[in-house]
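JOB MANIFEST
job_type = single_chain_structure
chain_count = 1
residues = 82
[input]
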Amino acid sequence: MILPTKKLPPENSLVYLGGEVLRLLDEPKTISRVWQEFQESRIRKLGLDMCDVPFDWFVLALDLLKLLDAVDLRQGRLERAS
């Protein structure tokens, strides 16, 4: 789940998803804006009709980033940790 396995492709692991989220954090953004940009990025990158990652996996990726001290939530906006 956190790392890829035989049955979990790398692009669906939480580490990979967290990396995608970090790439989107060029400035502080609301969670809903990051979620929207994340979906658009996945659709564009993988050529899908709709995002293949459910919101709960997105939240788990955010949890992992917070546990690793990679992101902070300040004044309702998500940003890279300093």
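[summary]
The domain at 10-80 is CATH 1.10.10 (Arc Repressor Mutant, subunit A).
Helices lie at 14-24, 31-46, 55-67.
exit_status = 0
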